[in-house]
Every structure is written in structure tokens, then in C-alpha cells.
Sequence to fold (460 residues):
Amino acid sequence: MSYPFQTKQRTMRTHHSTARIGLALMIGILALALFSCKKTLNTIGNNLIDDNNYINLYYTDTVQVYSHSYFDSIGTKNVRFALLGSIKDPVFGNTEAGFYTQFRFSSAGQNFGTTPVFDSLVLQLALSDTYGDTTTLQTVHVYELTDTISASEPYYSYSTVSHSAIDLANGYQFRPRPHTASYVVGSDTISQPVIRIPLSQELGTYLMQIDSSAYQTPDVFKSYFKGLYLICDPVGQNGAVSYLNLTNNSVTSLQLYYHDAATPQNAMRYYYYVTSDDNYFNHFDHDYTQGNTEFVEQMLEGDTLLGQQRLYLQSMGGVRTRIMFPNLTHWADTLEHSKLLINEAKLILPAAPDIDTTFFTAPTKLVLLGFNADNTTYILPDNYEGDSYFGGSYNPNSKSFTFRVSEYVGRLILNKIENHGLSLGIDGASYNACRWVINGPDATEGQNLKLEITYSFVNE
Fold:
């Protein structure tokens, strides 16, 4: 008996093998275990079946797959890293990453004295990592917020808060140095990479002269000083995005240097911090019109059929990819008096062979979710087995990502879940600056996106 499942422009390729029933029973048990999310083999009962019985195993990698990329938006409030910088990507075009943040005073009841004199104001940011070309000069602008970042409101990659038009950084330029072991600043030795941005006297003087009651509680202080917005100018080529740890209070701070007019020799410094009790969020601007032709045609001109050849992934509220298996739900129609067991199903995602990784390297990990009918997403059942089973990590040897989706495929075939497809994206997209390009299902055979299924039929 054969099972000719139809695939796009070709008939499914199957490989037929035969094994003794001892091994067959183990395979059957393994398949049943995959449906129950348990992978431990059980050999009880092997001796009860005649050695002359056989079982058929089948394999296919020609399941019909449709795919295309689509624009994404994500929540970015109080995430792991604040992102700052600009990238000009030859595929995706221009991206500027910035963030909005509140501050709080370091000690209540601060008194700057009767005749305080401003010396300088510096925003020091703990630099955890970068993505891109760190040799590119970045121009940063810092603006004071004129509206409050709400504790109750969700903020997304496109969200904004009103701010002053005055650039407190006066177009300060820097190159991120993520591998610098330490910095010496005056009498300080900073034991990790930082970005230090000098800010204007206007803000420093204001912080010293506001009413003393502002320094009684954090909430009152935030009504006087609502926070800052940082953003970088578009770069001419390459560029990088810096990963900043805002709540590392031993390094990240707004530092106000001053002295009293009566004792100019006594230099003093006062700190303002961002803590986990404060609110901040990332904001991203993308100019996709600057991307390459294939990208623009698929993403901006709506030619989703191009997703059969090439697919795109970008974090920072950028781009995700939808993957669908339209014919899987018809497999059950061929079962007749047999039971289909999915031994294993793997989604293979090879990199586009011409992708330039000089500066824009592969993401460490991808995420794969299921789509509901209303385009919300849910966690796939295979994901609960853990990363070592589910997959999603980059393999530099094969230049690909792989997910094991056996339980998901089994449920699709048995119509236990609706078939609305999968959503593929970059892990940590709200605080990660990666991008990637994947071959689509109709790319060159052997280098194409595909679903590999090993399965068997067991008579009831």
C-alpha cells in the first residue's frame, strides 16, 4: 500500500526500510512517546511479538511549504538592554535604535549648598556588547522628556514620549569600544566598557536649582525631571548598535560635578540612577526603502511569493517570517484502517549562501511560535521539552537553524490544532540587534527550507 501525498510540482519522495519487530516495537513506542512529550524508551513487551512480523518506516522532505516575511512590532518596556546606535544594512536598509528612560536621585534630601557652581554633567552608560561595525563613528542626541513615562502603559518598538527639541549632547560623537578592559576617568577606574556622553550646563544647573522638595521622594523628583531620550543619526555605511545595561548602578549613572563658590577646591559629585523600579523602553526607526531590491519587493511592494526563494529576520521590531504547511491536515484522509505515527519532524532553516556576515553575524538563537486564527501566537508543544530537544540554536558548521516539531506536526495531522502556520523570529528581539537571511522552500534543492518527517503506519 502506498501513500502518494501531493507536494508542490513533485510527488513525495519516500524511503522504505524493514526491520525486525523487536526494533519495530521500540520505534513504535518512541513515536507514541513523542505524541505524549516523553522521550524515554520502554522495551516492555518486545518478547510477546513474533519475530517474523515487520513494520514499514517512511521519510519525506518534500512536504509543501509556503512562507513569506512580514513586519513585526514588539513590546520593549524594561527589557534586558537599552539599545543605542545606527546601522546601514545592505539588505534591510537603515535602522536607528534609541531609548527613553527615567532617573531617580541617589539620596533623599540632597542639598547642593547656598552657592553651588556647575562644573559638568556626564551620562555614563555600561556597555555590555555591540552588534555591527564598531569602527563607524556614531552621532548621538540627548533630549529631556516633557511628558512622563507611564508605569501602567505598555510601550512598543514604535512608541514615543514628548521631549524637548534642545539637544543636550550637542551632537556628541563616539565609537563604542566593547572590548576595552577598563577606563580611567579622573580619579576613577571603571572596570568595564562604557560610553560617556557630556551633557549641557542647562540641565546640570536646573538639577541643582530645582526646589529642595524634589529630592524627597522618587515620584516627586520625576515630576521635576521626567527623564531623557537618546537616539543616533543615520550612518553612511555599516554602523553598530550598542547594548547598554541601564540598571547596573555601579557603572550606569547621570553624574553631576559641582563645587561651592566659597570652597572651589572641594569638587563634589552627585549621582542619578535608573533602577528596576523605574521605567524605560527601546524605540526603533527603520527605513526599509534603503534595502536591497529583493527585500523591498517582498516587504514593501507586497510580492510575498518571493518568500518561496528568500526569507528575512530582523530584531528591534523589524521582520519575522510566517511558515505554513497547507497539506498536512489532509494526511489523515489516507489513514483508512492504519494509524500514522510521527517518529520525528524537523524544520530545517538554511542560511542564504550569499549572506554577508563580516559585520552582521548570525543570531545565537531563533524562536518559533504557532499562529492562532486571530494572528496572536502561542508556544508550541515541542518547546516544553526544552532547548536541547526543541532546538533553535545556530549551527555554524551547517550554517543553519533546526527545530524539532514532531508533536506540533502530529497534532496538525490529527486535526487537534488549527493550521494557521508558524511565526519565526529572533530570540530577544526587543533588546537584540541581529538580522538574518534564510533560503526559502523553493531555493536550490539541498539548500532550501524544508520539513523533514520520519513516520510509520501501525495497523489497529
Observations:
- Helices lie at 21-35, 201-209, 218-224, 293-299, 387-390, 406-413.
- The radius of gyration is 28 Å.
- Residues 1-52 have pLDDT under 50 and may be disordered.
- The first strand starts at residue 6 and ends at 7.
